[in-house]
Amino acid sequence: MTGAMLLSTGQYLARGAVVTVGLSLGMITVATCFGLMLAVLRLYGVGPLRLAAAVYGLIARGVPLLVLLIGSYFSLPYLGIDLPLWLVVVLVGGLYFAAYMAEVFRAALAAVPRTQWDAGRALGMRRLQLFTIVILPQASRLSIPPFLNVVLVAVKNTSLVSAIGGWELVAAGREIGERTMEILPAYLAVAAFYFVICFTLSQIARHIEKKMRHV
């Protein structure tokens, strides 16, 4: 490749990487919020809600994300629900990884010593106040390493978007490989972009974890 071609290829892959990061952030946001809710239901919910949360987790973790993406994207229009592809990916991917986030948060919440609850009650704190001020911050510190693992898996699973006609980093790499007939260099470049994204996220998480240790 000439210098101009390398520059244009890098810019095109960078655009795909931006789309990948955007989809990842959307999925992670949905997964975090819904996963925390599932974890709270599993630990503190009444019987039926606790059972429903457990069943949801088992089903979501037992079905491949690709199957859910294809089934949702091509089935929703028949139900009269016409959503843009990116929104389907964010919602389906987010709800899928919420099942994994729920286990992360459930383990972290359960690891907080029971004495913390007792101490909060002794100070006259209400249950919700005690949970948000005392329990949740401690669980957040404990959940950072496994949370990061789920985030990295979610980022790499955005590559499945190309299977339903979406465009992101892998699709951009495939287009470049087909256009230049240099398949291996194109996908090596894609792998390099994924490494940069995941390494950056790892460093950010490590920095946050160090700061929270001193809080």
UniProtKB/TrEMBL annotation:
Residues 17-205 form the ABC transmembrane type-1 domain. It is a multi-pass membrane protein. GO terms for cellular component: ATP-binding cassette (ABC) transporter complex. GO terms for biological process: amino acid transport. InterPro entries: AA_ABC_transptr_permease_3TM (IPR010065), ArtM/GltK/GlnP/TcyL/YhdX-like (IPR043429), MetI-like (IPR000515), MetI-like_sf (IPR035906). Keywords: Amino-acid transport, Cell membrane, Membrane, Transmembrane, Transmembrane helix, Transport. GO terms for molecular function: transmembrane transporter activity. The keyword Membrane applies. It is found in: Cell inner membrane; Cell membrane. The chain crosses the membrane at residues 12-41, 53-74, 86-109, 184-205. Its main location: membrane. It holds the Pfam family BPD_transp_1. Belongs to the binding-protein-dependent transport system permease family. HisMQ subfamily. Part of the binding-protein-dependent transport system for glutamine; probably responsible for the translocation of the substrate across the membrane. This is Amino acid ABC transporter permease.
